[in-house]
Amino acid sequence: MSNQTLRIIDANLDRATEGLRVLEDIARFVLDDASLSGKLKTLRHSIHQAFADIAKDIISARDSVGDVGRSVEHQKEAELDLLDTVSANSRRVEQSLRVLEEMSRTPGIVPNGTVFEDARYAMYSIEKGLFSRLSRQGRIGRLSRYSIIENKAQLGPAIDSGITALQIEQGTLSQRDYYDWALESKQICGSTNILMIVTGQPDIALASDADGVTLDEYSMPISVVRSLLRVDQLIGYSATSAEEAAQAQNCGADYILCPKSFRAEILSAVNIPVISPFREDK
């Protein structure tokens, strides 16, 4: 195998594994997500292991000093937040895996070149998971003063009370009237930096650009709702027991709503926010 081929493998192997390590540490230390962190770690090790038989050849062919690419000037774009970091490193990994996939078609490089194609497609899914979790994390931190209202007359007083999140209930409204109210509420809440949540209607949440939706035991499954919403929209779950709350968390709920009388019990069963909302007087 030529030194040129080995250098291409070396450069892209380094890019892929370095990018994966950045993403792994974000999943581990920022999101405390053992599942995503574990998937990234497994992916990183599997890529390295694919070249175990020629590892010495790869290192021997390395010529960092003589790499003409080092002298090519380019302006690095500033990363504004962790979402930018995730996006940049995901692209870095995916592009490097594509190069490794193409190089693996050369006879004698690796026994099973499909490992890179499989890794690339796995990375697409992991990237979405990381981006989704991070984009919702900021909103989750704004749920501390949470109010539920049942009609438009309660909207003004709720906002004036200093809330950070507002959930509107459908009550006896038709689907169309509830949609119109959601649009109006979103516009008002958006102008005052308040999260607007709808109750039990993922389609209304999506169509009105709500910040999230709250479900309960009679709603569609959380996993189905998650597949329908945008990656940054929250899913809350209204629970009345620790068991129900824990199951909702395992299914992907971002926070739990419960009466104050159940709060202590539910807090001991989950590690996502548990909120006892304030209800405006009728």
From TrEMBL:
Residues covered by the Thiamine phosphate synthase/TenI domain: 153-262
GO cellular component terms listed in the entry, alphabetical order: cytoplasm
Stated name of the protein: Uncharacterized protein
Matches recorded under Pfam families: ThiD2, TMP-TENI
Naturally occurring in which organism (per UniProt): Dehalogenimonas etheniformans
GO MF entries: thiamine-phosphate diphosphorylase activity
Listed GO biological process terms: thiamine biosynthetic process
PANTHER family associated with the record: THIAMINE-PHOSPHATE PYROPHOSPHORYLASE (PTHR20857), THIAMINE-PHOSPHATE SYNTHASE (PTHR20857:SF15)
Domain ThiD2 intervals: 7-128
CDD domains assigned to the protein according to its UniProt record, in alphabetical order: TMP_TenI
Pathway connected to this protein: Cofactor biosynthesis; thiamine diphosphate biosynthesis
Entry-linked InterPro entries: Aldolase_TIM, ThiamineP_synth_sf, ThiamineP_synth_TenI, ThiD2
Chain ranges passing through the membrane: none
Domain of life, per lineage: Bacteria
Keyword set, alphabetical order: Thiamine biosynthesis
Signal in keyword set: no
